[in-house]
Specification:
The protein contains 10 helices and 12 strands. By secondary structure, it is α/β, with parallel strands linked by helices. A 5-stranded parallel beta sheet has the order 10-9-11-1-12, sandwiched between helices. A 4-stranded parallel beta sheet has the order 3-2-4-5, sandwiched between helices. The chain has a 3-stranded parallel beta sheet with strand order 7-6-8, sandwiched between helices. Helix 5 links the parallel strand 6 and strand 7.
């Protein structure tokens, strides 16, 4: 008879790869197959160490600066999107671009360019320094008296905006935020700028929202939430934040060698999810780790069926 304590483990659904991440990884592998290694990728194509290490082993070379890439090479732009300046640099260095930008991010870029062309002052709700934000801000190469781009992260940032109320104003959002992340900021924008225009359809990624909605349910009756994902993954970190804000123990893990069994002490019900850039194999490896220390009763939860598929570009 086993002396291990019994833990109920609930697997969140949906979890793991979204359509944009799956598409980006496929693009790198197709390029490697068609053109052979090395294939250069500007920034991590998706934010997951396991995936990046796999692609490196297959011949992908990840760089942060266009100048690092030999002239005439193929270059893949990551799922997070890039600025117009990066695209110009790629052309200057005679690179052959392959765009793995998530179509949902491309939608935001299109909105920004259309609004700027109509002389709107645009407010982007997002996290400073995130590559998606840098790419979206970089759609506007120079502010003008008639049109400009502004980043806000908090309500305080909204209060500091210096845009005349008689100007045309619109807002867009970083796709990996959630409705909860942006609601108060949007409300503040609407109070300060009653005529502000928003996107026709939400900029928030369906996958980001779906994964957060599941966490909100799990925290109601679980005493630990474990999220599989890398530290630089914005959407993965947000899943942990939601649980912690509800007073439930939670942490992020992407290297199962660092799994500490002490986290299982006095835990009866554990919820496991994975960020939109985390592969399922890591979830299964986590379950194996837990089983080394506890007897596990595994429950695969029902959830929203994600049927979104993004077409691959031709190259």
């Amino acid at each position: 008879m086993s002396n291990k304590n019994i833990i109920n483990v609930s697997l969140a659904n949906p979890r793991g790869f979204c359509a944009g991440v799956d598409r980006a990884i496929q693009i790198v592998r197709l390029a490697l197959k068609k053109f052979g290694p090395p294939i250069y990728v500007r920034h991590e194509v998706v934010h997951n160490k396991y995936v990046i290490d796999e692609l490196k082993n297959e011949g992908a070379v990840f760089v942060e600066e266009i100048e690092e890439i030999p002239r005439g090479s193929h270059v893949i732009f990551s799922a997070h999107g890039v600025s117009k300046l990066i695209k110009k640099k790629a052309k200057k260095y005679n690179l052959i671009p392959i765009d793995a930008t998530c179509p949902l991010v491309t939608k935001v870029h299109t909105e920004v360019n259309q609004m700027y062309d109509k002389d709107y002052h645009i407010v982007l709700i997002g996290h400073a320094g995130h590559p998606e934000v840098e790419g979206t801000m970089g759609q506007i190469e120079q502010n003008s008296p008639n049109a400009s781009m502004h980043l806000v992260q908090t309500i305080d940032d909204v209060n500091k905006l210096n845009i005349s109320a008689d100007k045309k104003i619109s807002y867009v959002s970083q796709t990996t935020l959630s409705f909860d992340d942006t609601k108060n900021i949007i409300d503040s924008l609407k109070v300060k700028f009653p005529n502000i225009m928003g996107p026709k359809t939400s900029d928030i990624c369906y996958a980001t929202q779906n994964r957060q909605d599941v966490i909100k349910k799990l925290v109601l009756d679980h005493d630990l939430i474990i999220v599989v994902g890398s530290p630089n993954s914005s959407n993965s970190n947000r899943l942990v934040d939601i649980a912690l804000q509800k007073g439930v123990d939670a942490f992020l893990i992407d290297d199962m060698k660092k799994f500490n069994p002490d986290c299982l002490k006095n835990k009866k019900k554990i919820g496991i999810s994975a960020g939109a850039s985390a592969p399922e194999i890591l979830v299964q490896n986590l379950i194996k780790k837990i089983k080394e220390h506890s007897e596990v009763k595994l429950i695969e939860l029902d959830g929203v069926k994600e049927k979104v598929i993004f077409k691959l570009p031709r190259f």
